[in-house]
Amino acid sequence: MSRKPKSDQEQVGNAVEQLRLAANLSRQELADRVDVHYQTIGYIERGEYSPSLVLALRIADALKANVEDLFWIEEN
């Protein structure tokens, strides 16, 4: 498998907000399910914070989604 060199400009895109809303969950409800502060969910949804692998997996589980459907590396 070929990998591009990591760039400081790489951004992680996500569909957390869309899937959270589709699940009819507030930020607080999702945060409670994955054991983080509700502001962390907001930071993730706005792309201001990239979650750890463990947190990404917890979010995917809480939203009944595959982690690769929630997070991806944005193409520059």
TrEMBL record:
The keyword DNA-binding applies. The keyword Oxidoreductase does not apply. Residues 16-70 form the HTH cro/C1-type domain. One of its GO terms (molecular function) is DNA binding. SMART domains: HTH_XRE. Keywords: DNA-binding. Signal peptide: none annotated. This is Unannotated protein. It comes from freshwater metagenome. The lineage of its organism: unclassified sequences, metagenomes, ecological metagenomes.
